[in-house]
Amino acid sequence: MSEIFVDTIKNKAGSTSLDSDKLPDMYSGSAKMWANLNGQGTISLRDSFNVSSTTDLATGKYTFTFTNAFADTNYSSPSAAADSTGGAFRGALPHDGDNVATTNYMIRIDNSSSTSVDGEYIHTATFGDLA
Question: How far, in Å, CA of 128 to CA of 76, rounded?
Answer without folding.
Answer: 6
